[in-house]
Amino acid sequence: MAELPTSAYAILGLLTFGEQSGYDLQKFVETSVGHFFDPAKSQIYSELKRLVAAGFATERHVAQNDRPDKRLFSVTSEGERALRAWLAAEPGEEAFRSPFLLHVFFGHLMDPEVLKAQIREHRRRAAETLAELRAIEKDIKDSEVARFPYFTLRAGLSNCRHVIKWADEVLKEMEVTP
To answer: What's the maximum distance between 2 C-alpha atoms anywhere in the chain?
Structure first.
């Protein structure tokens, strides 16, 4: 079996929800796995080519009158077997990287007002993401089809609430402590 990068398996998994174009996949990523795994748009298209070449996906051309023709992709049974084998294997070590937390770590070298502004911006983005996730939650909370995506959504909700709480605590401490 061909060794694929995680992004290819993510795309295979998204194709199990039904036939989609590259554009459809990008939109699906933005409202689902993109909150914790976000392949670049160009990566989606290159992975689709790789998946078709490996026999893990099929490509179908659809003629359109008012728009350019589009290509729709579907997962094959071989692709689903490869995805299931990947899912059954140990996921490996998670790499967490945050340039923002590097700024906080080296905060003693920064102007405190600049660091506070960065923390406030980080908090604002977390609050914005929390609002987006809450909107998604309303749509999928009681859906049996979305049961497992809902589990990951709950992790995202929890993380956003945690970031907001952390930022509030740090900003408060920075006001009292020089």
So the answer is: 65
Q: Do residues 76 and 134 share a domain?
A: no
**Tens of pLDDT, residue by residue, the chain (178 residues):** 558 888 899 999 999 999 999 999 999 988 888 878 878 788 899 999 999 999 999 999 998 888 888 999 999 999 999 999 999 998 877 777 788 999 999 999 999 999 999 999 999 999 999 999 999 998 888 887 788 889 999 999 999 999 999 999 999 999 986 6
Residue carrying the six token digits 């194709």: 15
**Residue 111: phi, psi to the nearest 5?**
-65, 125
Q: Is position 94 within any domain?
A: no
Are residues 42 and 63 located together in one domain of the fold? Answer: yes
Angle between helix 22-30 and helix 41-53 axes, rounded to 10 deg: 130
Would you say 14 and 20 are in contact if contact means Cβ atoms under 8 Å apart? yes
